[in-house]
Design goal:
Layout (H helix, E strand, L loop, with lengths): L14 E3 L19 E8 L5 H10 L6 E5 L5 H9 L13 E6 L4 E5 L4 H9 L6 E5 L6 H9 L6 H4 L1 E11 L3 H7 L10 H7 L3 E5 L6 H14 L5 E4 L47 E4 L2 E8 L4 H16 L2 E2 L2 E5 L1 E10 L5 E7 L2 E7 L11 E8 L3 H11 L2
Parallel strand pairs: 2-6, 2-7, 3-5, 3-6, 7-8, 8-9
Antiparallel strand pairs: 1-4, 4-5, 10-11, 11-17, 12-13, 14-15, 14-17, 15-16
Helix pairs in contact: 2-4
The protein binds guanosine-5'-triphosphate.
Family: Belongs to the SIMIBI class G3E GTPase family. ZNG1 subfamily.
InterPro entries: CobW-likC_sf (IPR036627), CobW-like_C (IPR011629), CobW/HypB/UreG_nucleotide-bd (IPR003495), P-loop_NTPase (IPR027417), Zinc-reg_GTPase_activator (IPR051316)
Keywords: Chaperone, GTP-binding, Hydrolase, Nucleotide-binding, Zinc
Length: 396
């Protein structure tokens, strides 16, 4: 991504150099230490329109001062390696690749062309100059490990602990998306193509460039996406034009996934003309190129069942095994869920790869959380045996 794409029809954002806006790295932050900065990861297929979406966000009136980070890593293993070597500051180029720019709408944009952890830590030392972070990954990146890094980041340096992961947004190319998903199939039993990983790992999906395709192609792409990830709302966009409430400040890792909570909970999901559910496939079990999603409903859960569920998830995520079906091998990319205990406590389940969290949720009447809970798993090996095993754990 660059800020000077000349092939974009719209006026590029006016960028004004403001060297004095950059906060002294060594000065103390203007924000209280406890304030955590939300971070949205924007991933998507090569050329799908990630930069176009970013430009759009940066030039809209949203009230945030946004820092943009561009992920130059082609290989996610590199990110993890850098995460471990935080203190070695092995990033000699980052010092020169930081830019602070003020946009015409007053939004401050800090762009770092490297997402090495050391660079992000330096960025966090400047907090006070921005209050939201957008991280654009390369078209080939798997957002899973990056999301994990920001989600449970206490073990990394303090700079990252002040970031809270808001959500993962995936931009799919309406023209080439379907073809890419079909080609990007598993090469062996446990390898999963990047485009499918990106869709599976996302909280919101935009099918962009819908001006360039016929309705049938669009429908086919949307159906494939829904088969991979039924828990994420899908919006159709032209040049990233979307109500920003759908993609930033969504607290996807704190609130229940509205897309799977059914009609009762639709008020937490803001529907619009962009959002078409009319031809959603039936919500049960789908499979695309070895990746499948599995949804299981449950009633209110007592403590023994909550404990069993926790154990079942741990086994599946950490051991790739199913408690009562040892011959089943699973690889779970993402899990989400919401359920209620017999004591009236509402819980949200969120998982990215091997990390998961079951957290209590404060519920207001207006959220309309139903007593019926749901759990969605996305990954490989999620067959009928796995579904039955999970249903058994959740059954009264
Ligand atoms: N017709 C049309 N063109 C679009 C739309 N969105 C983006 N484009 C064009 O598609 C091209 C690629 O868009 P980018 O925003 O650079 O895509 P990207 O995902 O950032 O690309 P990479 O960083 O290379 O992966 C540019 O020429 C955009 O002007 C759209 O909705 N419709």
């Amino acid at each position: 991504m660059s800020f000077d794409d000349s092939d974009i029809d719209e006026e590029p954002p006016s960028l004004i150099e403001v060297p004095d806006v950059a906060v002294d790295i060594n000065s103390t932050s203007k924000l209280p230490q406890s304030t955590r900065v939300p971070l949205t990861i924007i991933c998507g297929f090569l050329g799908a329109g990630k930069s176009t979406l970013l430009k759009r966000i940066l030039t809209e009136k949203h009230g945030y001062r946004i820092a943009v980070i561009m992920n130059e890593f082609g290989d996610t293993a590199d990110i993890e390696a850098k995460a471990i070597n935080v203190s070695s500051a092995d990033d000699p180029t980052a010092e020169n690749s930081e830019e602070f720019l003020e946009l015409a709408n007053g939004c401050l944009c800090c762009s770092i062309k490297d997402t090495g952890v050391a660079a992000i830590e330096r960025l966090m030392q400047k907090r006070g100059a921005f209050d939201y972070i957008l991280l654009e990954t390369t078209g080939l990146a798997d957002p899973g490990p990056i999301a994990s890094m920001f989600w449970v980041n206490e073990e990394y340096a303090t700079g990252l602990a002040d970031i809270v992961l808001d959500g993962v947004v995936c931009v799919v190319d309406a023209v080439f998306g379907q073809q890419q998903m079909e080609e990007d199939h598993a090469t062996d039993d446990m390898n999963i193509g990047e485009s499918i990983r990106q869709i599976a790992s996302s909280d919101v999906i935009l099918i962009n460039k819908v001006d360039l395709v016929d309705p049938n192609t669009l429908k086919e792409t949307e159906t494939t996406i829904k088969r991979i990830n039924p828990a994420a709302p899908v919006y159709k966009t032209v040049k990233g034009e979307i109500d920003l409430r759908h993609i930033i400040g969504i607290s996807a890792f704190r609130l229940p996934p509205s897309e799977i909570m059914g009609e009762e909970n639709n008020n937490t999901h803001i529907h619009s003309d962009d959002c078409d559910h009319s031809n959603d496939p039936p919500q049960n079990h789908y499979e695309v190129r070895g990746i499948s999603s599995l949804q299981v409903s449950c009633g209110v859960l007592d403590q023994p069942r909550l404990d069993k569920l926790d154990e079942w998830i741990r086994n599946a995520l950490w051991e790739n095994q199913i408690s009562d079906a040892p011959s089943s091998k699973v690889q779970i990319l993402r899990c989400k869920g919401a359920f209620t205990s017999d004591k009236g406590v509402h819980y949200v389940l969120q998982g990215v790869r091997s990390m998961y969290e079951i957290s209590e949720m404060e519920v207001t009447e207006s959220m309309g959380i139903p007593d019926t809970g749901k759990i969605v798993l996305i990954g490989k090996g999620l067959d009928d045996v796995v579904r039955k095993s999970l249903e058994h754990v959740l059954a009264r």
